[in-house]
Amino acid sequence: MGIAIAIFLNLVAGPVGGIIALGLAFGLIFSIYQKSKMIYDDLQLIKRKLNIDDRDEAFEKYQVEEADDDHNQNSHTGLTEINEEIERELEEYAKRGKTKADNPNSD
Known about the structure:
Blueprint: H1 2-13, H2 15-49, H3 54-102
Helix pairs in contact: 1-2
Keywords: Membrane, Transmembrane, Transmembrane helix
Region (Disordered): 65-85
Transmembrane segments: 6-30
C-alpha cells in the first residue's frame, strides 16, 4: 500500500512526490512511536499505583518455580523409596500368605 502511494505521488507530483512520501512515512513512524510511548507511560503509572515491580515479581516467580522443581524432584525420589518399601512388604505378605495356605495347621 505504501509503495503504491509513493508511486502515485511520484507520478502526480513528480520529483517532489518522493519527498512528500518520505515526509508522510516519517510522520507515520513518529506517530506510532508517540502512541507506543504514551501506552508505555500509562502502564508504568498503573504498575506504580498497584505496587507492581517487574524485576521483583520475576525474581520471586523464578524462586517459586525453582523451589517447586526441587520439591517435585525430592517428592519423586521419596515416592520411589516408599514404593519400593511397599512392594517389599507386599511380597513378604504374599509369601507368608502362601506358606500359611500351604500349611494350614502351622498356627
